[in-house]
Structure prediction request, 380 residues.
Amino acid sequence: MQFELTGRDAEIAALAKQVGQDVLQPHAAATDAGNFPAQNLRALGTTGLLGIKIRKEYGGLQAGNVAYVAAIRELAGVCASTAVTVAVTNMVGDMIQLYGSEDQRQRHLPQLTSGQYLAGSFALSETGAGSDAAALRTRAERDGDDWILNGSKMWITSGDVAGVTLVMAKTDGTKGSRGITAFLVEPGTPGFEIGRHEEKLGLRGSSTVALSFVDCRLPDSARLGGEGQGFEIAMTALDGGRCGIGGQALGMGYRVLAESARHLEARKSADKTLGTDQNSQFRLADMAMRLDAAWLMVLRAAWLGDQGKKMSREAAMAKVMASEAGDFAAKTAMQLVGAAALDARHPVARALRDVRVSRIYEGTSEIQRLVIARSLAASV
Ligand code: COS
Prediction:
């Protein structure tokens, strides 16, 4: 057993760190001010980081979940808005690779991994179907060889900029979660419209929009996986996605830990550096312990996935621990750094806003606890 990244995982983490410094950092403030980081995504398209698990023949890095979470952690430490856009793009590519036909892979994966699409987007949530995902009401009905898609989606990351959107729709209203099918919808499809842009507390450079589908005609070749397989695809995507969100929250957490330590070493009060004050030391130690514990859990979930094992429970555990550790670290850092961090552009202020949603999206902490408890009940 090894407790450090090795080989290709370490190389990909180092690549993401370098890209974070060279590419993301110069635009981080502008991105936080609400500008979608298109230039970052184009540059990331030359690195393979938009398709970390995608096979080389489709332009990806052909690595695994461990490399993925490590890369997202590195990117999020610099620019969480870019990191979440990258995470969702990877998630959509993974599902196309896993469930798609060869034609679908050829059609979408090279464009996703190269940045030509800018991003991929994942459309599951609706106003009446957030936590209860199977309650979604968007529907697709057969019309000859085609499907007619009607309905609307909410809180869709990159829905307005993505080259492909993975849309979950009901195709059989009598079968609950087994009546949901996944479709790959491309921009410009008549009837596919972009709605309201959300004005968010954090991740302000990532784009979050409502989508609507009005008699949107799709060929059957746009269906991803089998009829009725959409919920399984969504849940499989979210298992991997939850590891990524864990990495993302911790990237911010470790960043604010470093900012706090730097601040405490630099500041003097009553002739002592703040870093030698025991109260500050205890707080730093608490942040570091929680972050490290959560990181080990994220790595465990990611590693299980790389072994081809089911990791829904471990991914859910990791997401709760990491998002709550990241949130704790940001709040603690705010108190330690004090007035300087009240500047909205300070990295600690930004992390405080950016990290909060990790406890909510890709399944709230409460939903993760439900997944954990159900899986425990099923295993006794
Ligand atoms: N992987 C593969 N299949 C899964 C799965 C997983 N992780 N989790 C559930 N399934 C399958 C089940 O095996 C079941 O299949 P069968 O009908 O063949 O038995 C089916 O999906 C339904 O499962 P379940 O009964 O557990 O579904 P529920 O409707 O009770 O919902 C939760 C389960 C709450 C876990 C789900 O709705 C959820 O994850 N909600 C949060 C959604 C979310 O994260 N939204 C954020 C969107 S992106 S920002």
User: Anything to note?
Assistant: DSSP finds eleven helices and ten strands in the chain. The beta strands are 120-123, 139-143, 146-157, 164-170, 180-185, 192-197, 208-219, 223-224, 268-269, 272-273. The chain has three domains: 7-118, 122-228, 234-379.
